[in-house]
Design goal:
By secondary structure, the chain is an alpha+beta fold. It has a domain of 63 residues. 29% of the residues lie in helices and 25% in strands. Strand 1 and strand 2 form a beta hairpin.
Length: 102
């Protein structure tokens, strides 16, 4: 009876330990999203009025249509025109993505 218990414990141990080893292809970690396209709540910088909820590239295109100039995230030589936040809380409690007109 003891030998049967020993074999059962050994089989369970091998099964449990074998499931934690990495064989072949690694599984992706769930919190590391692949190709995640983040959308932001964009507000105009002059009066903090809401513009739209969009991805960065869509907002840049939208602002280029409005201002008829180049829009980028580079602050050098530009004028701040919009801020993008990850939530829509007022007052804004996160660091913004800033868009500048050049």
């Amino acid at each position: 009876m003891k030998s049967l218990l020993f074999v059962a414990i050994a089989a369970i141990t091998l099964f449990v330990c074998g499931s934690y080893t990495s064989k072949g292809k690694q599984r992706p970690i769930p919190h590391q999203a692949q190709n995640l396209k983040t959308a932001y709540y964009f507000y105009f910088s002059d009066n903090d009025s809401f513009d739209q909820y969009a991805q960065l590239s869509a907002e840049i295109t939208h602002l280029e249509d409005i201002y008829q100039t180049i829009i980028s995230t580079d602050p050098f030589g530009g004028t701040l025109v919009a801020n993008g936040y990850t939530n829509n809380l007022l007052p804004h409690n996160t660091w913004p993505v800033e868009l500048y007109a050049h």
